[in-house]
Design goal:
Elements (H helix, E strand, L loop, with lengths): L7 E5 L10 E4 L9 E4 L5 E4 L1 H12 L4 H4 L2
Length: about 70
């Protein structure tokens, strides 16, 4: 992602490739409904609320996303 000024990095998700890595950021200056930012390795970004992101985390912990890793 080209402009990360003011964003707090949380995690980098690396698939061990040479094409860049998706990243997770928090933007403390953004409105609550767009505070969590997930970027991909193509320069795109998704903005969501902390509640929306916590739903993704809960689904991942419950195993609902496991099939994606075996696809």
């Amino acid at each position: 992602m080209s402009n990360v000024d003011g964003l707090e990095p949380v995690a980098t998700f690396c698939g061990n490739c040479n094409c860049g890595c998706p990243q997770l950021f928090v933007d403390p200056a953004a409105p609550n409904d767009r505070r969590v930012i997930l970027t991909d390795d193509f320069g795109q970004r998704i903005q969501m609320s902390a509640d929306q992101f916590s739903s993704i985390v809960a689904d991942a912990k419950a195993g609902k996303l496991d099939a994606i890793t075996t696809a």
